[in-house]
Amino acid sequence: MPILTESELKNKYNLPNYHVPFLLKANELLDFRNKKVLEVGGSLPRDLVIGELQASQWVGIEQLDYWQEIQAANPTTSTQSIQFSNYDSIGNYQILTGSIEDIPQSFYQEFDIVFSIATFEHIHKLPAALDQMYKCLKVNGKLFSLFSPIWSAHDGHHLPNSYTENGEKFNFSNNPIPPWGHLLMRPMEIYDLLVSKFDRKFAQEVVYYIFQSNHINRYFFKDYTDVIERSKFQKKDIHPLFPMEIPNMIQEALIKKYGDQDFSHNGMLALLHK
After folding, report:
1. Cys bridge to 194: 7, 40, 203, 259, which one at CB 3.0-4.6 A?
2. Span 6-149+218-273: which CATH code?
3. Residue extents of the structural domains in the chain
């Protein structure tokens, strides 16, 4: 059965704009047909993954603490999710709640592919998570991860939807602070900037999400490459994504504060081989 086009899939399954092109990129590289797939940090619909993509099994893991933290529901979260159980007790499609670091041993060496979109920036215990993903793969299995934004990028604070008292909506795409401001400004400097334009509650909420909330791990681009290079995977293909030109003055300030590293790329594609 031919796969629908990108626009057809978006319309049919009502997915976020980034989900479908990333999913199709993974399918291009890995081919989900007749594969057993472990999705980390997501819960794509059964009809899409078993029907359109023809995976033989699809098991998703959702960390619900994240969605509770940002007070928003994942638009693709299944209402049929269950807590971790023995691998032998699940069928060809199941959504589980929990952390990948805690996945039971019964899931080890069961999957051809570990698939993850827009999740690695939320995983705090990334080295431990990669170890578990590695164990869940069969020999010669592959891990595909595409994620953004990264903390060291211009919008890396990953601000979730936040509203002023007048109903104006801001997030990391509609950024209420200057690019790279989360790296170069102190929390109360950002607060003062925001409260000069918006209400106090909004300013307080934005500062909290940027600097204190646990919804992101605040890894720099180099942190990800360092962690991946030290993982157990035998072959590691890392591709920087979504570069943004950095004004010279900001580049100099970033290097002075953090050293010479990648502040341009907002995302990463990692294809790792067991």
Report:
1. 203
2. 3.40.50.150
3. 6-149+218-273, 162-211
